[in-house]
Design brief:
The complex is a heterodimer of chains A (357) and B (1062). Chain A has 357 residues and is of the alpha/beta class. In chain A, 24% of the residues lie in helices and 31% in strands. In chain A, the strands form three sheets. Chain A has a ten-stranded mixed β-sheet with strand order 10-12-11-13-14-19-18-17-15-16, with helices on both faces. Chain A has a seven-stranded mixed barrel with strand order 1-2-8-6-4-3-9. Chain A has a two-stranded parallel sheet with strand order 5-7. In chain A, α8 (235-242) packs across α9 (253-261). In chain B, α14 (425-434) packs across α16 (450-464) and α23 packs across α24. The chains are: A alpha/beta (357), B alpha/beta (1062). Chains A and B meet through α3 and β15 of A and β11, α9 and α16 of B.
């Protein structure tokens, strides 16, 4: 089936459509340069309301498996690549079937390099994947869909991906009680904490600071999550109240929320950072990590007093980490939990453990 | 931290002559490193014995020493130059071994020279199997169960413990030399014995087989702060059991999950840390059990490798250059990414395309050698194909092999060709798919990961749908092209001509687009003009460089066409740039300097086929194309390029045809009054027999359209000629005539390289072959200036060469092969292009031949005042053969070329001491791997014709204290001529015979000349024995004379080593 990706500026890409023609796919179109890890990416809640373009051409090669999920569903709206392949490994599922199960359309045979350059030049656009006879029809179908979606989508994406019930987990560590403020947390974050502490609880993004602190955690992780940090309802206020009470470790969205809570600002990057190869320098230790990244917003340079820039991205020198030492709060923009991506910075969870235990 | 200021002068070691397992990739890495170090202000002293390299060009380093890579010579250079440091990690295993030897000989300590990049300890940790195994256990990495053995007895015990099949890996050898896989005790002991003698430390690692496991490689880098990056991940198409150099490999890894890949990455990091590689590149190989994901570490190279050259070309990340910078103290984040120019080098390249490497083999040149791939590398060269998908990249690599239609050509299917790895397996896999064999079945037979087989199946399925309608249908043809089917293959499948398909594509805009390799999948802007074509991209707009000139490269290394031609291409690019012409390179060989994106103004990494070259030309719209630098490959493309309306720069197509067509060329020579051997072109066997009678035996049979003298043979009688046709039934036909000419026995051959602007002819140099006529020019040693030809004769040669060059209307390069017999000069062959001997002559004379040729092809006039005859030094070309890897082959030399590389020995004026021929000879022999015995037994077994001359040799050797041993006939002859020698039995006379003596290690050198098929096969075991024991074996009397000269010299002046830079 012929399918099209239509961007809001009416640029059209024609490809092969996978799925059913009545599955809508409208969202922000973002590219990810990771060469492996499509299942982790698709199930990462931070991709909520986004259409993912994988720059690596061969997708689906090794199929899918439950062990490679970052959550129990696919959050992305659509999937775009050059080749969508099957695996021959009987013990694993097919990516195409996994996509179909969540009614996520995919578009293959797309010159993803051309599309990536377009996104890079124009900034992250909105777009739609549609089935049509030709590009004119595709544009006609898509533009209203995009407009409608932009209006309709609730702004607090974090809340939509966050757990509704508090989840209590028994950890494998000998001790330590840690809370996760769930802004759309990836499974790998939970996994890293569960492996180091004895008790982990996951709270909804609108849970009050009191609810969380009443559980008496020794530290809290502010998780990753989708969208604009300034759209997140309540969290910044609650984090302000937690500041200084227990150690805080922010990741990605959690890093941005922490920055806002400390009085900093955030801004939107032109086309974001999404990939597994971004070099980040830890300004304290001098170490350089290859990091897993997925964010469209970043923390501004004008940090408030008492907050220092602790890590930077060596690609564009944007802030990758901040620290408010007196308040025992620090955070990173990237994903130390990996999944997908290099494990270099998993040591940060060890630092966190050391600080609170 | 940044670069070290306490170091001023750095010595860089090259890798010596091209051998299997160590080819031009180290010219690429060394040249890059020289550039990088000099740009940082360091003085670079380069040592390499291979003259065919770019790195040994005088302008690459501050000082270039073309000297043997042996401790005694290196020590002299160190004494003279007093370098502060040596970088041993960029010259392959040879350079690493040199570093260890220098350390062990105390030279490094004596002259206070620091090793940069890797220290002796970490080299040993990686190389010594036992230490390596223990270190792996320390970091929790698994390795195959293994035991190091030093004797056959230990070996037997080890085999019992491990169980068959068993892999044998000798320590410290190149490309797995001397290793193998054994399925039975007999096979095992056989390989073990050989491996023990091959290993310089007499150690062989006997190891659990992981045959059939998936094989992966990571190319990694680390700086002194500990920042670690994976530059490229590589997956082998062929599972474990085939040397990675002989495997088809793919980058990036295709069939691993993120979890599995990241765990491998974590382990790689631990490996490089525990081995203690402080800075630089390393390569780590893994095997993964497809059943359960179990992973083991196979090996680690603490240096830049063949794979790192591939990884650099595949990703655009210049590993050698960065390694050099890290070695002098930089850290990864302090070095800018060359390609983006805005981001740092501490990152992991992201690919949005796929790269496939396919090895190129030359089994056909070694009759008797089984085409069977094992853990010992046997391929001669490799190609790389870049495409947006695996299928496209794989098929582009297939095209780059320059074989058949450039696709998965049909073969007669044999299941046996699937179950054991061989150079033709890929064609048989395709054929199996074509004939409906299931992917599961093929997987069962080959253990190749089904994902790859499924991809190939898609190509084969598409092939099945090809017919005369579908190839001229827009949608279908587009689909075929995206799958990588070439016009030639489509033509074969559809019956529609390639021209028709090409025209249909042109008219309908079914043409590839060109993307750049940018290291980052488009995330950042990149201006670096390193292109590859893809049908997954629409055709580009106009190319931005104005009036470029395209240079066609020489494609994959093969015997007869290798690094010498890349030298020509790279020099030609430089020449064009000097004349302010935009130079564009097209080549498919990832090992080369020419495919460094930094060399030309734009690089197109494309197959050198009609189709792919024309697409590039169509895009770049060149003002001219150079076909005379890349060897025979570009020459063959010339007619099509002209037909398509492009201009060839330099000699015209008419000139090329006149020189290449033996009949036309013979006519020209006759017209000019030049002597040529009696000859005739024949179209069938009957004609051949008749012609041979007329010409008179011995004759040389020269088949058409061959490279490196393929199937060329000297034939002495009617019976032998009949036998020749029996063995080579396809060698003559109406479409492929056979050229027969009289063989000039005992003639002296010379190579002449000339440059002409059409009016003035410049003689670049004359090389006198050391071996007599009948040995391929690529296989014979040579000397410049000639030692046995009188000045007047040289005048005559120069005169007739000029005459011939002008009559051919050469513009640019011409190579002539001449023979001198009984005072007459005969013309044998003319090559209207740069030749194998050009780099040697350029180094020997100091005259930049290619630069002059470039001026000519740009229409400038030659003004050269310097003459090669003013050359003060004497240079000898040595030759290196791959027989160690092809143990079943006979080492006898003949008209078919079989050498892979060359060395150079130089002797220069030194104060009042004049240059000495014998010194140059000695260095050439040493650089070619000959051990020069000071004393001991020299064994003679000589054919009648050579007995007189060998008697002289035996006499002088005996006088110098060598003991002479000879087979009965030879001994009797020596005896009757006043030289008492010990006689030893021939093999067929029963034990103890000469081969027993050779294998016992008692004999130090062998002179064995032979002719006639019976004697040849009788004496085969002598020559094979010499290989086993690594004993010099001279099979040609003139070469033997040269070697004896060297023996005598080494007797007298062993300590007197002289080294001088170019």
């Amino acid at each position: 089936m012929k399918g099209f990706l239509v961007l809001q500026d009416k640029t059209v890409f024609e490809g092969k459509f996978h799925g059913q023609s009545n599955w809508p796919a409208v969202g922000e179109v973002v590219f990810n340069t990771s060469m492996v890890g499509y299942q982790e990416i698709l199930t990462d809640p931070s991709y909520y309301q986004q259409i993912i373009v994988m720059t690596a051409p061969e997708q689906g090669n090794y199929g899918v498996a439950n062990t490679e999920r970052e959550s129990d569903q696919i959050w992305a709206q659509g999937f775009i690549c050059l080749q969508l392949n099957q695996t021959q490994d009987q013990s694993r599922g097919q990516l195409s079937e996994e996509l179909a199960e969540y009614k996520i359309p995919a578009l293959s045979e797309i010159d993803t390099r051309l599309l990536t350059l377009h996104i890079r030049e124009q900034g992250t656009p909105w777009g739609a994947i549609v089935v049509a006879r030709n590009s004119e029809e595709a544009i006609e179908k898509s533009l209203p869909l995009i407009e409608e979606k932009k209006k309709k989508v609730a702004k607090d994406w974090v809340y939509e991906t966050s757990t509704k019930e508090t989840i209590f987990l028994k950890g494998q560590g000998p001790k330590g009680r840690v809370a996760i403020y769930d802004f759309g947390a990836k499974g790998s974050i939970t996994e890293q904490l569960v492996s180091r502490f004895s008790e982990v609880a996951i709270f909804n993004s609108r849970a009050s600071s009191k609810t969380i602190l009443d559980w008496a955690p020794q530290g809290i992780v502010l998780s990753n999550g989708p969208g604009n940090p300034t759209d997140v309802v309540g969290a910044v206020e609650q984090v302000k109240k937690i500041l200084g009470q227990i150690p805080i470790f922010g990741i990605c969205m959690g890093h941005q929320i922490l920055a806002l809570a400390l009085g900093g600002k955030t801004y939107k990057l032109k086309f974001g950072h999404r990939g597994s190869n971004h070099p980040v320098k830890n300004l304290e230790t001098g170490e350089i990590y290859m990091t897993s990244q997925n964010h469209g917003y970043a923390v501004s340079e004008d940090l408030p007093l008492g907050v220092k820039k602790s890590q930077i991205n060596l690609y564009d020198n944007t802030i990758e980490g901040i620290e408010a030492q007196k308040l025992q709060a620090w955070s990173v923009q990237y994903h130390p939990e990996a999944g997908p991506g290099p494990h270099d910075s998993r040591v940060l969870f060890d630092y966190f453990a050391k600080k609170i235990l | 931290m940044s670069k070290r200021e306490d170091i001023k002068k750095i010595m860089l070691l090259g890798s010596g002559p091209i051998v299997i397992g160590q080819a031009c990739e180290f010219d690429y890495s060394g040249t890059q490193a020289c550039k990088a170090l000099r740009s940082e202000g360091y003085e670079v002293i380069l040592v390499n014995s291979n003259p065919a390299t770019i790195m040994t060009d005088p302008e690459t380093a501050d000082k270039v020493y073309i000297e043997p890579l042996e401790v005694s010579y290196l020590e002299k250079i160190i004494e003279k130059e007093k370098p502060d440091a040596i970088i041993p990690t960029l010259g392959g295993q040879t350079a690493l071994n040199c570093a260890i030897s220098l350390h062990e000989a105390g030279v490094l300590q004596k002259y206070n020279v620091e090793l940069l990049g890797a220290n002796v300890e970490s080299i040993k940790k990686a190389e010594d199997r036992e230490i390596f195994k223990n270190l792996m256990a320390q970091i929790g990495a698994k390795v195959p169960k293994s035991i190091t053995v030093k004797t056959l007895e230990q070996g037997k015990l080890a085999a019992e413990e491990i169980g068959f099949p068993i892999i044998l890996r000798p320590s410290f050898t190149l490309g797995g030399s001397g290793g193998g896989i054994a399925y039975s005790l007999e096979e095992y002991l056989n390989i073990l014995e050989h491996g023990l003698s091959e290993s310089p430390t007499s150690e062989v690692l006997v190891e659990q087989s992981v045959l059939g496991w998936k094989e992966f490689e990571l190319e990694v880098m680390r700086d002194k702060r500990g920042t670690f990056v994976v530059i490229c991940s590589i997956e082998n198409f062929d599972p474990m059991g085939v040397h990675t150099g002989d495997s088809i490999t793919i980058a990036p890894i295709m069939t691993l999950t993120d979890k599995a890949y990241q765990e491998m990455r974590d382990e790689a990091r631990k490996v490089i840390e525990v081995i203690g590689v402080e800075t630089g590149g390393a390569n780590i190989q893994f095997a993964v059990n497809p059943q359960n994901g179990e992973r083991i570490v196979i090996e680690m190279n603490p240096r830049v490798s063949r794979s790192s050259a591939l990884a650099s070309k595949a990703t655009g990340f210049p590993i050698a250059k960065i390694a050099a910078k890290l070695a002098v103290g930089y850290e990864l984040d302090e070095i800018l990414n060359d390609i983006t120019k805005t981001t740092p080098s501490c990152f992991e390249p992201s690919l949005d395309y796929v790269v496939t490497k396919i090895p190129r083999f030359n089994f056909e040149k070694f009759p008797g050698v089984k085409d069977h791939l094992t853990t010992q590398m046997k391929s001669i060269g490799e190609v790389m194909g870049i495409g947006r998908t695996f299928k496209e990249s794989f098929m582009k690599a297939m095209s780059s092999l320059e074989k058949g239609t450039g696709g998965l050509d049909s073969v007669t299917y044999s299941e046996a060709k699937l179950s054991s790895a061989n150079s033709q397996r890929i064609y048989h896999i395709a054929q199996a798919l074509r004939e409906g064999v299931s992917v599961e079945k093929i997987h069962e037979l080959t253990q190749i990961t089904p994902w790859f087989l499924e991809q190939l199946k898609e190509i084969i399925e598409a092939e099945k749908s090809v017919n005369s309608n579908s190839v001229l249908n827009y949608d279908h043809l587009y689909k075929y092209k995206k799958l990588g089917l070439t016009d030639s293959r489509l033509s074969v499948l559809s019956g529609i001509s390639t021209e028709q398909i090409r025209n249909f594509r042109k008219n309908n805009k079914i043409q590839p687009g060109f993307w750049v390799v940018d290291t980052c999948s488009g995330e950042f802007a990149s201006e670096t003009p390193y292109y590859y074509s893809s049908y997954h991209k629409k055709p580009n707009d106009q190319f931005k460089l104005k009036d470029p000139v395209v240079i066609l490269g020489s494609g994959p290394n093969r015997i007869g066409q290798a690094i010498e031609f890349d030298y020509g291409c790279v020099r030609a690019i430089k020449g064009l740039k000097e004349n302010n012409v935009n130079a564009i390179m097209i080549n498919s060989n990832p090992e080369t300097v020419s495919t460094d994106y930094d060399t030309s103004d734009a690089l197109f990494f494309e197959p050198l086929t009609e189709e792919h070259v024309l697409e590039v030309l169509n895009y770049v719209n060149p003002k001219g194309v150079c076909v005379q630098f890349g060897g025979q490959t570009p020459i063959q493309l010339a007619p099509t390029i002209i037909n398509e309306g492009y201009k060839i720069l330099g000699s015209s197509l008419q000139t090329i045809e006149l020189a290449e067509d033996r009949e036309l060329f013979a006519k020209l020579c006759t017209k000019l009054g030049l002597k040529i051997p009696q000859h005739q072109t024949v179209l069938n066997v009957t004609e051949a027999l008749r012609a041979a009678e007329k010409i008179g035996y011995p004759i040389i049979c020269r088949p058409s359209f061959v490279l490196g003298g393929r199937k060329m043979e000297i034939v002495g009688s009617t019976e032998e000629l009949q036998d020749y046709f029996r063995r080579n039934p396809d060698v003559v036909s109406a479409t492929s005539p056979l050229f027969i000419d009289h063989f000039l026995e005992n003639a002296l051959e010379v190579d002449v390289d000339l440059i002409s602007d059409g009016e003035t002819v410049f003689i670049g140099g004359i090389i006198e072959h050391i071996e007599g006529a009948g040995v391929h020019s690529g296989d014979s040693m040579g000397v410049l200036p000639p030692q046995r030809i009188a000045a007047v004769k040289i005048d005559e040669i120069e005169k007739l060469s000029r005459q011939l060059c002008l009559s051919l209307k050469i513009i640019g390069h011409l190579n002539l092969q001449l023979a001198i017999k009984d005072g007459d000069v005969y013309v044998l062959e003319a090559n209207p292009r740069s030749s194998r001997s050009v780099p040697f002559i350029a180094k020997a004379t100091g005259i930049p031949l290619v630069k002059l040729a470039v001026r000519c092809i740009l229409g400038q006039k030659l003004h050269v005042t310097h003459s090669w005859r003013q050359t003060k030094s004497i240079s000898v070309k040595g030759v290196v053969f791959p027989f160690k890897k092809f143990r079943e082959a006979d080492i006898l030399l003949g008209p078919e070329m079989r050498s892979t590389g060359e060395s150079m020995g130089r002797s220069t004026q030194d104060g009042i001491n004049p240059p000495e021929y014998v010194e140059a000879l000695e260095k050439a022999f040493v650089s070619s791997g000959y051990k020069i015995p000071q004393t001991g037994k020299v064994f003679f077994s000589i054919k009648d014709k050579d007995k007189d001359e060998s008697l002289e040799l035996a006499k002088v050797l005996e006088a110098e204290g060598y003991e002479i041993i000879a087979t009965k006939g030879t001994a009797e002859y020596f005896d009757s001529n006043g030289l008492k020698v010990k006689s030893v039995k021939k093999v067929r006379e029963g034990s103890p015979h000469c081969v027993d003596m050779i294998l016992s290690g008692d004999i130090k050198a062998i002179v064995n000349t032979t002719s006639g098929s019976k004697s040849v096969s009788d004496s085969f075991s002598i020559r094979r024995g010499s290989l086993e024991k690594n004993i010099p074996c001279l099979t040609e009397i003139s070469a033997a004379k040269a070697f004896v000269k060297v023996l005598l010299k080494s007797q007298r002046t062993n300590k007197n080593i002289r080294v001088n830079p170019l």
